[in-house]
Amino acid sequence: MEFKIIKKDRKKSYMSLGIIVIITLVAMNITKYDPILGFTSIPKAIFWAGSNFYPTVESLSKLPTIMSKMKETIFLSIAATTTASFFAIFLSLFGSKTTNTNRVLSAIARVIASIFRNIPDVVWAMILLFSFGQNAMTGYLALFFTTFGFLTRAFIETIDEASSECVEALEATGSNIFQTVSQAILPSSAPQLISWILFMIETNIRSATLIGLLTGTGIGFTFSMYYKGMNYNAASLALIFIVVSVLVIEIISNYIRRVIL
């Protein structure tokens, strides 16, 4: 019996692998992708990057602009994340089973979170370009909407995992929903909620760099401007600042997580 089950599972695995291979070959044929040419081009790409993509003394004159745009990107990401987290906490209290809210409101909250979460921030930026144009507000709202949906879903799951004993004890004493939330749910969930917020700040800094290419703002647009202008030395300096900033933010975020968790 066990042998038949193993044989059946193995057959399914081979079929799945075959389907993946077929899809890959069809995609390569449609896109005219040549894997051999792709791999043989890697040494040339590395040589070109080593010959052109590095900062110079002249490119250091762009340092104030790069630092200013990097700061703009970081603060835009933080602003979008913190404001979205406030609204996400409010909506997640309606969506959570722990708070025992109306089932209809809970379902609506989960649907709203799903819609906003499943539309990528880049797509939001494209949609908002029609209304707001290329500016920081477009980038802010694109990050806000995606973050709002993601954090609402994450907060709902976090609150659902909150200690039910504390909630039941407060409800038994006649506490209302506001007292239960402030005295039991939020205190027990706070470390995990803060961890999710820090995670989204890291993610949004990376996303804001790409969104800047569409909105014409931040370090992403600055990098694109230097690269398209063939000022590769300044573009490499901007890239270095992006990498260093992301790593520093991640180190700080991980340290805070270790302290609060």
End-to-end CA span: 47 Å
Report strand %: under 5%
Number of strands: 0
How would you state the average pLDDT, rounded? Answer: 84
Largest sheet: none
Do you know the CATH topology of the largest domain?
MetI-like fold
Supply the CATH superfamily name of the largest domain.
MetI-like
CATH architecture of the largest domain: Orthogonal Bundle
CATH class of the largest domain: Mainly Alpha
Assign the structural class, choosing from mainly alpha, mainly beta, alpha/beta, alpha+beta, or little secondary structure.
mainly alpha
Rough shape? globular
Q: Could you give the order of the helices and strands? A: HHHHHHHHHHH
Topology, please?
Elements: H1 2-31, H2 35-40, H3 42-52, H4 63-95, H5 103-118, H6 121-132, H7 136-160, H8 164-172, H9 177-215, H10 218-228, H11 232-260
Helix pairs in contact: 4-5, 4-7, 4-9, 4-10, 4-11, 5-7, 6-7, 6-9, 7-9, 8-9, 9-10, 9-11, 10-11
Defining traits:
261 residues; mainly alpha; MetI-like fold; 2 domains; 11 helices; 85% helix; 0% strand
